[in-house]
Fold:
Amino acid sequence: MAVCLCIFSCIPVSLHPIYDSESIVYDSQLEGSWLQEETGDMYRFVKDDDRYKLYVGGKNDTSSYFYAHLTEIDNHRFIDLFPARLDTALSQYLLLHFVPVHSFALIDSIGDDAVTISPISLNWLTTLVKRDRFGAAYESVSGFTVFTAKTARMRTILRKALRQKEQAFAEPYRLERQL
Structure:
């Protein structure tokens, strides 16, 4: 990702999405602008077919643009983010060396006034993958864990996370609706 979002920092990234065409859901309550008070970051979700466009702006005038999909796994909602574009000010040669990846987190709740999001614990997930010997389910690249498992396998891993929710997910972040 071009920018490490506070609510998605230190969480796993995947080459493949955690959603498939049958599991995509839409919730109109997510549309609009949200503030994470601790960081001052603003999040704006705009409907775009079966997904959202997510614009993120920070205190230091940085901004990012993602495609966001909501997906359901065992009656729990997750969000999958994928960069919509990389900084076009970078040279084409430099851009060649960036591989866009998906990041994801559990949506605990979407309400009229707030959204709560729990990132999955990278330590928990990496330990699980190593212990279960998923084969080539991940690679460690320059200190980052990049999951290479296909969508179906990632969804299976997230089902395991839901069964061990207290260990598998970090403290939730709260986003407050902005009018």
Q: What stands out?
A: The first strand starts at residue 13 and ends at 14. Helices lie at 92-95, 122-132, 151-163, 165-168. Residues 1-9 have pLDDT under 50 and may be disordered. Residues 151-163 form the longest helix (13 residues).
